[in-house]
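Let us practice reading a record.
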Amino acid sequence: MGADCREVELDLDAVLSQYPDERAEWERAIPALRRLRDERGWGFLAEASGLSERALRYALNGGKMPHAEARRKLLHLAT
């Protein structure tokens, strides 16, 4: 190798991107949200999240994950 070559040390944690597993985070929150639903009702969760009761029922029964803003609100309630 020529005289211009230098060793480069890389910190892989600084280079690699970390992506949150939003689906797993959502699925971990579902039991707490179901308990909250049993205590406070569908209307409370719907109003707090901005979702319709129908969309909320679908999400809590393992259907489609709610959009980011509603999911953020619901995850906050679950903690």
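A brief commentary: The mean pLDDT is 88.
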